[in-house]
Specification:
Layout lengths: L26 E5 L6 E5 L6 H88 L1
Antiparallel strand pairs: 1-2
Length: 137
């Protein structure tokens, strides 16, 4: 498997970063449009079929391992997002309950605050009035 020649560069985007299913000049792939199948063309002059099959099996095994890793990572991320969503829902419920309590407290004690402000303003006005009367003379 010394002379690898890959169609389309270094095996990049079409094969997802993996080497294409081709290991020697005797065996090459032809992509079939709109299908998951791979068609192989075997050149009997240069082909060592057993080595090619072994190479393909190892590539399939590697792809299977990559697919398994992708699946486990996707499962982990899905579970993580579900936990985040539940945390967000709980936080929203807590904020809603606290806002309801705060509004009840404001309605219940709000009028007392207004009375205190009005009394303070009257007291301040009275003190300023008396002070101005005392120092004018």
């Amino acid at each position: 498997m010394a002379s690898n020649s890959h169609r389309g560069g270094t095996g990049g985007s079409f094969y997802g970063g993996a080497a294409p299913y081709r290991s020697r000049e005797g065996l090459s792939t032809r992509p079939v449009a709109g299908s998951d199948e791979i068609q192989l063309r075997i050149d009997p002059m240069n082909a060592d079929l057993d080595d090619e099959i072994t190479g393909l099996r190892s590539q399939v095994r590697q792809l299977r391992n990559v697919a398994h890793d992708i699946h486990s990572e996707a499962t982990f991320q899905k579970d993580f997002l579900d936990q985040l969503q539940m945390t967000l829902i709980k936080a929203q419920a807590g904020v809603k309950n606290n806002m309801r309590r705060l509004n009840k407290s404001i309605v219940k004690h709000g009028s007392n605050h207004i009375v205190h402000v009005v009394l303070f303003a009257l007291l301040l006005f009275t003190v300023l009035y008396l002070w101005s009367k005392m120092f004018r003379r």
